[in-house]
Amino acid sequence: xxxxxxxxxxxxxxxxxxxxxxxxxxxxxxxxxxxxxxxxxxxxxxxxxxxxxxxxxxxxxxxxxxxxxxxxxxxxxxxxxxxxxxxxxxxxxxxxxxxxxxxxxxxxxxxxxxxxxxxxxxxxxxxxxxxxxxxxxxxxxxxxxxxxxxxxxxxxxxxxxxxxxxxxxxxxxxxxxxxxxxxxxxxxxxxxxxxxxxxxxxxxxxxxxxxxxxxxxxxxxxxxxxxxxxxxxxxxxxxxxxxxxxxxxxxxxxxxxxxxxxxxxxxxxxxxxxxxxxxxxxxxxxxxxxxxxxxxxxxxxxxxxxxxxxxx
Length: 312
Known about the structure:
mainly alpha; Multidrug-efflux Transporter Regulator, Chain: A, Domain 2; 15 helices; 2 strands; rod-shaped
């Protein structure tokens, strides 16, 4: 056959190895238009159609959709532009598949109900912007209308959960738990009480901000007491409590007294919600950050000791 020879769809199928129905589909879709029509209105193709068909097959094998292939063949976009578009689309698909894989691995570890699995799937499909919006909504609903500690609010807003492109089952589980936690009405009410208490302290003149050094001192001193076996009601605990209260009073410009100890006890009890620590631990798990030892036993001991030793 020479260059002037025309081929039927059957001829193209024999020369390319593609099924007749596939070639007919490409022709109907407009990516392989016939060169001519026979007197009986049958489609006929020249040699360039064979080259075109081989290109279509290659691009389809690479996963390009027919709309993009049509644009390449019509020279609306270049091959490199089409490749870039498809590569970007594949990146999104790969990320989705990685998240689905992590969900399936999580489900494989535990016996979730279909409803729980559906909820998990819906939560992990949220985009990064949607995940961040969920956290900001939580912050707005708890801190948004009160004059709480601005450094804490800024820390909350600047520390967002960033689920990686290839999350582990633990990170997926952490994000699911965090999403449920920040939507929990009880947790929101507890954080709201904390924000309102901070606002009342600020109204009374407190502008001290965050207190990392004070927290570290409390942790070290109380951990040593727990390790030594000192019980909250004991005389030894009373001495430690006096030292800790003195540190708090100095930080906040107060003086150790029964009234101040009552105020401090109220502050600690409101702040000592284990779900707050869980919130920060989940953020760390999702973001792949290291997590330190729990402070819950430290402040439980301090609160119990302060209840027993309300007077200096």
